[in-house]
């Protein structure tokens, strides 16, 4: 199946970049995919999945979790503050921390719940109007703000503009992460995950190349 091909390509990209085997986590992005396709990928042993919407994730993952052990869920889409609690209770990681109001909400809920998923701060590397994320020049201050709130910030995330060379954006994200002492880099999708791995991605978010086109 396509999953094996993607795993092989990740292994080759790790080796090609002189990185340790297994240093990149594959997040299989299952948003808007039929359950049969998701289940086939679960049967093939994949356990780390990404969803854009909390609502959709809450609708489909509790049932899969009853059937399969060890599922790890990552929320990778924009997160409304009124969905934050549900996201924290459902997911092991959130990749879309992108504004102070969300950060303070997550911090308050982490106190209440007593735990917090791993967090990635989304950076709008292309400075696109319509895209979520803090601007590159605001990233250092926002990382500091999140750390000041005791949030478990593991790394940074970006989605490069569709019409630009992704490598430039991956390199920029890696640079911002390095100067902030952040080890995690969530970057690379179906069309560019090998480039992202060459530039240091620790988490690649691959959807259609594994599951096929979304419905
Ligand atoms: C949908 C999505 C992906 C996966 O995209 P593909 O091109 O299908 O691999 C990755 N990251 C985010 C944030 C997404 O919304």
TrEMBL record:
InterPro entries found in the cross-reference section: Ala_racemase_N, PLP-binding_barrel, PyrdxlP_homeostasis
Claim: Ribosomal protein is one of the keywords in the record: no
GO molecular function, one term: pyridoxal phosphate binding
Residues recorded with modification N6-(pyridoxal phosphate)lysine: 31
Domain annotation Alanine racemase N-terminal: ranges: 22-214
CDD domains to which the protein is assigned, alphabetical: PLPDE_III_YBL036c_like
Database matches in HAMAP family: PLP_homeostasis
UniProt record similarity statement: Belongs to the pyridoxal phosphate-binding protein YggS/PROSC family.
Annotated function: Pyridoxal 5'-phosphate (PLP)-binding protein, which is involved in PLP homeostasis.
Name of the molecule in the record: Pyridoxal phosphate homeostasis protein
Species of origin: Seohaeicola zhoushanensis
